[in-house]
Amino acid sequence: MTAELIALSAKAAADAISAGELDRAEYFAAYRARSAADELNAYVWISEEGGARAAPVSGELGGVPLAVKDLFCTEGVPSQAGSKILEGYRPPYTATVVEQLTAAGTVLLGKTNQDEFAMGSSNENSAYGPVLNPWDRTRVPGGSSGGSAAAVAAGLAPWALGTDTGGSIRQPAALCGIVGLKPTYGSVSRYGMIAFASSLDQAGPLARDVTDAALLYRHMAGRDPRDATSVAHPEELVLPSAQDLAGLRLGVPEDLTGEGVEPGVMAAFEAALAQAEALGATVERVALPHADYGLSAYYVLAPAECSSNLSRFDGVRYGLRTPADDLTAMYTQTRHDGFGPEVKRRVMLGTYVLSSGFYDAYYASAQKVRTLIAEDFARAFERVDFLVTPTSPGVAFELGALTGDPLAMYLNDYFTVPMSLAGVPAISLPCGLSDGLPVGLQLAGPAFSENRLLDAAHALEAAFGFDGAAVRA
Ligand code: GLN
Predict the structure, then answer these.
(1) Is the Cβ–Cβ distance between 188 and 242 less than 8 Å?
(2) Ligand 1 center–CA 410 separation, angstroms
(3) Catalytic residues, which ones?
(4) pLDDT-based confidence at 128, cuts 50/70/90?
(5) Which of 22, 120, 191, 341 has the smallest C-beta neighbourhood within 10 Å, fewest atoms?
């Protein structure tokens, strides 16, 4: 019985609940029981009641459980951003996206594990321990939304919220064989999201299929007066229905030659392109001359913003405080005890690139590179509808394999960071396997092209026929 419930997509479950064919309390209880028995360390907190509150179904998502990345503030519920410095922090308010989804009918199932303050690509930077990949428990699920991705892939949640600053929805979605959408910057409110790099952070759905991702996104998007960078989506967001890619032009970045990409990933990517052509798309090479500098610019800008955002964690207002003899010693000791090594590395790097002697050389240059990359995308989208790349250069790697080498870890973000710098939407969907592990295909489109992007992903998904059911069993 439980297996049948878990096999339903979130949309199928929402439809069944509203038709009176599925009992929402029973559905919630099935997910709660599975999550409570979680051996992947995907959750840092699981709801006690949720489904027992058999409130009348309201909203399109009536009664469907939702897993939420730890860094979203949820009133009265631990919201720790994977950090020890926020251990036990229970905010007095709820993030706008979570509020909107609750209004649409979702029920909070749990908070998911993540890299500390969303800094990482493997979930190994969490103060609450690493998450295991359900496809192979000796491997990482990706990061930073690793708990959300593993929970959805393993059938511990029908769907989940994540955030993406440089790839943190798309890369874990790819490594766990699910769908992840990083929306257009500004289309979803950041209010109540514990900040990493505010000009890049964006919330988005992690889901089992493209339709579920579209359904969740539709209820997340919108202008929020409490986030001045948010805007109303110019289009009504609809569910995808395309069956083919007739007339679509896809662009493959010119310098994507396969160098640095695992051969199995490249093979799956090339097979995916062939399937796109069979569905009616044309594939051509496009120039993105500055994309290669994306990582370098990102690893200046994101730490710069992080060093500013994280200055609020000082032992006075939130979470941990290590008592000391004077105020400065209290600040220093609290931050020493509360932040993990990756966060400290980035705060130091960010402070350095913003310091008066180095600002122009690093921060200002990186901002210029960011503009050039955004212009590359704008030019490319004059020629093609979407850009396509592998989501990640490799499949899920072994736990511990890259923890000693931050630069090798950062290379995971090679294909995802440019879209974040340009602010454009991108989706990752599973397109095949390499050595028995999932490979993600990334499609990126112009700002606010989510309807068309999801439509194309929907057609491709049907053609790929990727099956993640075995890891949910
Ligand atoms: N892996 C990247 C980083 O460590 C991206 C993280 C993210 O998107 N939050 O910064």
Answers:
(1) no
(2) 8
(3) 69, 144, 168
(4) very high
(5) 341
CA of 167 to the centre of ligand 1 (A): 6
- Mean pLDDT for 295-307 is 97
Sign of CA pseudo-dihedral 134, 137, 142, 146: positive
What average pLDDT does range 301-327 have in this prediction?
95
- pLDDT by residue (tens digit) across 18-70? 999 999 999 999 999 999 999 999 999 999 875 445 455 678 898 999 999 99
Q: Which atom of ligand 1 is nearest to the CA of 299?
A: 10
Give the side-chain half-sphere CA count within 13 A for 174: 36
Could you identify the atom of ligand 1 that is nearest to the CA of residue 412?
1
Q: How far does residue 258's CA lie from ligand 1's centre (Å)?
A: 23
Whether 346 shows a pLDDT value over 80: the answer reads yes
Mutate-to-test residue for ligand 1 from 121, 296, 345, 411, highest number of ligand atoms within 8 A of CB: 121
Q: Which atom of ligand 1 is nearest to 169's Cα?
A: 8
| pTM for the predicted model, two decimal places | 0.97
Q: What are the two backbone dihedrals, phi and then psi, of residue 393, each rounded to the nearest 5 degrees?
A: -65, -20
> Across all residues in the chain, what is the average pLDDT?
96
274 CA from centroid of ligand 1 (Å): 30
pLDDT at position 52 = 46
Predicted confidence at residue 319, as pLDDT, reads 87
Pocket lining for ligand 1, CB < 6 angstroms = 118-121, 144, 164-168, 196, 302, 413
For atom 4 of ligand 1, the residue with the nearest CA is: 120
- Exposed e or buried b per residue across 114-148, where buried means at least 16 C-beta atoms within 10 angstroms of its C-beta: bbbbbbbbbbbbbbbebbbbbbbeebbbbbbbbbb
When pLDDT is averaged across residues 74-98 and rounded to a whole number, the result is 97
Chain centroid offset of residue 184 CA = 13
